[in-house]
Amino acid sequence: MIEIRSLRKVYGDKVALHSLDLSVQEGEVFAFLGPNGAGKTTTIKVIAGLLRPTSGSVAVGGFDLATHGLQARTLMSYVPDEPYLYDKLTAREFLRMMGDLYGMPREKIEARIDMMSALFELEEFLDNLTESFSHGMKQRVVIAAALLHEPRLLVVDELMVGLDPKSARKVKDTLRELSRTRRMTVFLSTHTLSVAEEVADRVGILNRGRLIALGTLAEIKQAHASQTGQQHEKFEDLFLDMTATE
Fold first, then answer.
1. Beta carbons within 10 angstroms of residue 21's beta carbon
2. Which of 57, 58, 123, 242 is deepest in the core (most CB within 10 A)?
3. CA distance 77 to 82
4. Can you tell me the distance from the alpha carbon of 39 to that of 35, in angstroms, rounded to the nearest whole number?
């Protein structure tokens, strides 16, 4: 679903990404981890078509973003780390607008709004202006909007920010279910390592713009132990060790 080849991004004299190569398969939940400044958000924005790479390529669903960007973007939804809504629209109006942007028939839009509202418990807030919503409520609306047109790829930057435990559990369960039943691919960046442990099929660890580990948690632990002789039971300890020594 995602093919990244020799991706490099430079800001002035700062290299944010050093020749990144990465493939993410259809139906996979992939967690992209790394400390602040590692290059995670830069990578996500390139995948979402919000940044142009300095060099290299990104393809989504077989469509190169540089040459077939519109076709690639119709396959995906992007959830940023800050939920941006239009304050003077109600949640229902915002969801309808998102459906219209993706060219969905009005009947399907209304059916999907009902479905997403029930899933994320938005019914009683649908006709309220979004300016009155808490951060967590805005995040739930943004996630509902991202799933409205049933994307083949969901790209998420810091998924759980602002969500209460019940909502966070609902989102995690929903993403796992959609990856299994609809073959939706999920590419998520998070600082919450437990989220990666719970939902990810594979993990990539980025540090200083370079991919330093890739695989299942078990594979990463085994590879690190083979290279260093150090065994880590907790993924947090492994992550801190790997990103501190690079």
1. 12
2. 58
3. 15
4. 9
Spatial neighbors of 117 by CB under 8 A, at least 6 apart, are 123, 126, 144
176-181's contacts with Cβ under 8 Å and 24+ in sequence apart are 176/29, 178/147, 178/154, 179/27, 179/28, 179/29, 180/27
β-sheet bridge partners, residue 203: 31, 215
Name which of 156, 151, 145, 149 is nearest 93 in CA terms: 145
113 touches 96 (CB < 8 A): yes
Mean pLDDT for the chain overall: 92
CA gap 16, 158 in Å, rounded: 19
Domain-wise residue ranges, the chain:
2-75+152-245, 85-150
Measured over the CA atoms of residue 10, residue 13, residue 15 and residue 16, the dihedral's sign is negative
Phi/psi at 150 (5° precision): 55, 65
Comparing CA positions, the residue from 147, 150, 151, 61 lying closest to residue 159 is: 147
Given a cut of 60, is residue 246 above it in pLDDT?
A: no
Could you give the CA distance from residue 244 to residue 169 in angstroms, rounded to a whole number? Answer: 30
Alpha carbons 152 and 178: distance in angstroms, whole number:
10
CATH 3.40.50.300 corresponds to the domain 2-75+152-245:
yes
Q: Is the backbone of residue 6 left (phi > 0), alpha (psi -120 to 50) or beta? A: left
Measured distance between the N- and C-terminal CA atoms of the chain, rounded to whole angstroms: 29
Kindly state the average pLDDT of the residues 42-63. 95
DSSP 19: E
How distant, in Å, are the alpha carbons of 26, 37, 87, 134, 190 from that of 162?
28, 21, 18, 9, 13
Q: What is the pTM of this model?
A: 0.92
